[in-house]
Amino acid sequence: MARVYFWFGLLLLGVTGIADSRGWLGARPTPVRNVPQSIRDNPGAYRSIYQGSPRYFGGK
Amino acid sequence: MAERQGPVTRGFNCANCGAAVELRALQHTRTVVCTSCGAVLDPRDPTLAILQEAAARQRLTPTIPLGTRGTLHGHPYEVVGFQYRTIEVDGDTYGWNEYVLFNPYQGFRYLSEYEGHWNDIRTLQALPALSGSAGRLTATFNDTDYRIFQTATAVTRFVLGEFPWRVRVGDAVDVSDFVAPPNLLSRERTPQEATWALGEYLTGARIWETFSLPGSPPSAGGVFANQPSPFAGKPARYWRTFVVLALALAAVLLGRELTARREEVFTKAYTFEPRRAGETAFVTDPFTIGGSGNLEIGVETNVRNNWIYFDLALINVATGTALNVGKEVSYYSGTDSDGPWTEGSPTTRLLVPRVEAAEYYLRVEPEGTGAPVTYTLRLRRDVVSLLPYGVALVALIIAPVVVTLRAAAFEKARWKESDWAPQGGDDDAGEGGDS
Question: What digits encode the pLDDT tens for the residues B416-433?
Fold first, then answer.
């Protein structure tokens, strides 16, 4: 089983290197399609899903 | 002790029940127990005196019938004797079977059987060296250290067949077992003498095969004192492999650090005035991302004791597809009774994975309160992300951790039956010791 572990590890290393170089890993935001072309002239016409999310009003 | 020399018989009739009793070990036999009635007889006594009647006529059936032959270590042996012995530990009685095997040229050897665990045992002519302190003895034999496992008084409860010593029901000896799996050293002491024996763990399947026993062996229960661990040596192997793989992972990361382009595709500074009325959202000039991969959006601000939130949309000029992300930047500092403190950071970065090569622009919508904030948006493609390497490292460490835990659990199960059970085990820890 240690041999299986070794080969699994090597496979994991390869996948990790490729995934990082190609930017595969990480949570990719869901693409929003059909953003109105007018956004360039009127940026306020588009609101992302993050609008209105909670804020931290921190400080010690 | 000088043995009384007398006539030796090859067989006789039991003086107790009259059944025929056959001697297999001939002149080596000191005691024979009638297989019919269980009476213990001295075959050298011309009158076949009954040494002892079997206690309450209790009968046990040996798993390996007397007279069965099998080959051990390349020599044929015949099962000539059987006894059942018990020890008492903390009020609980534990019993096991012992078989006497005989080969006219090789002499005697023994098999012990406890809940499906078997040991091939031979008496030693050499004396193991004892060392240790505070009762935690170690016996050294053939350059192998054996740790004390248990000391108890073993009492013979039932005997059958032939034995190379004078055996009788009720015989009691102090037994100390020392283990170095798969071997076990056993010392049996009486006020007159001490005998050492070396046992090697055998599986029931091996015994069944050796003696061509019908059916299949019963499954072994629990972990026996000298049962070889299926994980022996594995944790060290797995951890060594893990170190090799972790170093290889570090090499891959280093390679990425050296080859990552970190190509800056957009940089621009802005000022956000929270108190100014009107729309705060704006779009940047278009910029080109020359290759697919991840995209780092770095935000550097001069925020202090304040916060600013960025609502960002990376919009593909050609397709109109947006990737929405958000990030807060907050930085606070001050001084209190504990001294100076800071919290947060005036800079941040976020990574957008799998961004295709194309022309994009950013829609930026800052939110905040208080004083104006100056900030710089810096976008770079093909940067190194530590996340996949961290995930890989965690995935790699799982196997050695699991193997180590399982090996430890096996050893814990082994030692919980000893006089030296681990703290929190079923038995009292460290209350035993060599007598």
Answer: 888 877 665 444 444 443
Q: Which domain holds residue B315?
A: 261-383
Could you tell me if residue B248 is inside a domain? Answer: yes
Q: Does B134 have pLDDT greater than 70? A: no
Contact A31 B323 (CB under 8 A): yes
Residue to mutate among A48, A49, A56, with most B CBs inside 10 A, is A48
Contacts B363 to A, Cβ<8 Å: 39, 43, 46, 48
Backbone angles phi, psi at B16, to 5 degrees: -90, -45
- CA-CA distance, B421 to B428, in Å (whole number)? 7
Q: Which of A5, A11, A53 to mutate to test the interface with B (most CBs of B within 10 A)?
A: A5
Q: Is position B427 within any domain?
A: no
SS3 content of chain A, % helix, strand, coil (to 5): 45, 0, 50
Task: Indicate yes or no: pTM above 0.90.
Answer: no
Per-residue model confidence as pLDDT tens digits over B262-271 = 999 999 999 9
CA distance B326 to B344: 16
Question: Do residues B202 and B245 share a domain?
Answer: no
Query: With an 8 Å Cβ cutoff, are A23 and B341 in contact?
Result: no
Which value does ipTM take for this structure?
Answer: 0.77
Give the start-end residues of each E strand in B181-286: 183-189, 194-202, 263-272, 282-283
